[in-house]
Amino acid sequence: MFAEVVRERVVVLDGGLATELERRGNDLSTELWSAWLLADEPAEIVAAHRAFFEVGAEVATTASYQASFQKLGQDAEKLMRRSVELAREAGDGWVAASVGPYGAMLADGSEYRGDYGLTVAELRSFHHRRMAVLADAGPDVLAIETIPCLAEVEAVLAELDQLGFPAWLSLTCAGTRTRAGEPVEEAFAMARDCPSVVAVGVNCTAPADVADLVVLAARSGKPVVAYPNSGENWDSANHRWTGPAVFEPAEVKRWIAAGARLVGGCCRVGPAEIAQLAGHPACL
């Protein structure tokens, strides 16, 4: 159902879940980021999802981005499943189960570098069980997001080929290259022949780069997903955002003209910006 809708019309995604959780007063300074709230403050996650639904978002992206068996231990599977349950509880929209990159588990900003030094086989081993658990929890789609390098693209696509569950694949880029410095069109081309991939594109990328990246992603023949961050820069050493916010919801017209069908925001993009985006004529 979700894949069919994406081929037919524009779907509005949510914004940065962590951004809304922090606005509500939650401390996300731990290595688990928003994932710790799955156990300790589940009502806060529901409220944050609901804030995006109420302004026009049609998809809730779960609080599982930073969740991993390595960090959550014996409670990992239960909490990953809970992330989907909480998103369902928040509203009647679609649920995208967030599958963050290997670098998110490290909590050192390496998803913005892609310099893991791991083989494809090692990355597959990291993603294998968590992707299976999240798919089995009953979301509408997996959001495989913020992928910074071709090796991890190859790993998650191989897992999707085995899993056979619908997913979008979203990279984080600088200019028209992956964070690891590789041509991003190679990643989009790799996704072309994976039937489980319902959309391909970018997230947590500077808004100014999105239009050109959407053009490249559209060459895959897949619907395109685009949800940039605010344009601020993440200082991983000091764990803070710096620089001005330049996210302009009106830019969605350019993204859609270039082929985007899933549009929203990522880090530092809140309900106010999603409300403007959802109300833009290009999304109606």
Automatic annotation (TrEMBL):
<dbReference type="InterPro" id="IPR017226">
    <property type="entry name" value="BHMT-like"/>
</dbReference>
<feature type="binding site">
    <location>
        <position position="204"/>
    </location>
    <ligand>
        <name>Zn(2+)</name>
    </ligand>
</feature>
<protein>
    <submittedName>
        <fullName>Homocysteine S-methyltransferase</fullName>
    </submittedName>
</protein>
<dbReference type="Pfam" id="PF02574">
    <property type="entry name" value="S-methyl_trans"/>
</dbReference>
<keyword id="KW-0489">Methyltransferase</keyword>
<keyword id="KW-0862">Zinc</keyword>
<dbReference type="InterPro" id="IPR036589">
    <property type="entry name" value="HCY_dom_sf"/>
</dbReference>
<feature type="binding site">
    <location>
        <position position="266"/>
    </location>
    <ligand>
        <name>Zn(2+)</name>
    </ligand>
</feature>
<feature type="domain" description="Hcy-binding">
    <location>
        <begin position="1"/>
        <end position="281"/>
    </location>
</feature>
<dbReference type="InterPro" id="IPR003726">
    <property type="entry name" value="HCY_dom"/>
</dbReference>
<dbReference type="InterPro" id="IPR051486">
    <property type="entry name" value="Hcy_S-methyltransferase"/>
</dbReference>
<keyword id="KW-0479">Metal-binding</keyword>
<keyword id="KW-0808">Transferase</keyword>
<feature type="binding site">
    <location>
        <position position="267"/>
    </location>
    <ligand>
        <name>Zn(2+)</name>
    </ligand>
</feature>
